[in-house]
Design goal:
Elements (H helix, E strand, L loop, with lengths): L9 E7 L7 H12 L7 E3 L12 H4 L1 E2 L3 H13 L2 E9 L5 E8 L5 E5 L9 H4 L9 E3 L2 E7 L6 H4 L7 E5 L7 H15 L2 E5 L2 E3 L5 E3 L3 E3 L5 E4 L5 E7 L1 H10 L13
Parallel strand pairs: 1-2, 2-4, 3-4, 8-9, 9-10
Antiparallel strand pairs: 1-15, 4-5, 5-6, 7-8, 10-13, 11-12, 13-14
Helix pairs in contact: 1-3
Amino acid sequence: MRDLSPLPDLKLALIQTTLVWHDRQANLDHFSTLLGQVKDADLVILPEMFTTGFSMDSETLAEPEDGPTSEWMKEQAKRIQAVITGSVIIRAADGSHRNRLLWARPDGEVLYYDKRHLFRMAGEHEHYSPGERQVMFELNGWRIRPLICYDLRFPVWSRDAQDTDLLLYTANWPGARRLHWNRLLPARAIENLCYVAAVNRVGSDGKGFEYTGDSQVLDFQGDSLLEAGEADGIFQVSLKAADLQAYRTRFPANLDADTFEIQ
C-alpha cells in the first residue's frame, strides 16, 4: 500500500439543499449562489440529479455530454478553483440515457462515472442504461471513487480497500429509508478502511417523496466527522491523510481481503 503521509489535507464542501423539480435553470442559479459561498475547498459535492430531481423523464430532460450543465460546471469549477461533482441526466454518444456523475476540474477537464445500480423500485432501469465500470479519480494525490445513491447497497461494487482513500456517494435518498442510509455508510467506511463522504438532498420532489438529508462525512472507523442532519446549506470539513495512513498501518485488514473480479 502506498504511503499517504505526504499528502495534503483534502478539503471538502458538501451542499445539501432542495431541488426544483424539472427546472434546470432554477437549480443552476441556486447552486451558483451557493458555490459563491464556498470557502477554500478542493472538492465540492452536489446531490444526485441536481438539475432536475430524481426523475424518470429521461427522454425530455437528458442533456448531451457537452450540454449546458457540463459547461456550467466547468465555469463554476474555474470560478472557485475547486473540483465540482454531482450527477446529471445525460444522453450519451451512443444514444443511451445515463445517470451520470460529472467531475469538473478547474482546468476545464470533465470526467464521469455512470451509475451502475439502477433503482428498479422507481423504474430507473427502464429509463436509463447502467454503467459498465468502476472509476477512480485523483485529486491532490488522493484516490477518490464516486458512486451514486442505490450503489450504496452493493458492497462488492464499493469494495476496493487497497486503492481508495475516499468513497464518494451522491444521492436522492428518501426519508422513508433514512435508517438504511445511516447504517450502510459507516459499514462502507469500515470495510474499505477509507473515508466516506455522502451528499443527499432535502425537501420534497415532484412526486411527493420527502428527503431528509443526512449528508455526512465519516472516517475509516465509521466515526462521524460531519453531520448535516436535515439542514439546508453548505458543510465543510478537512480529511487528514496522515490519520488514514496511521490507521491502516495499525490495522491492515486489507492484507487479508478476498480477491475477486467484477464481471
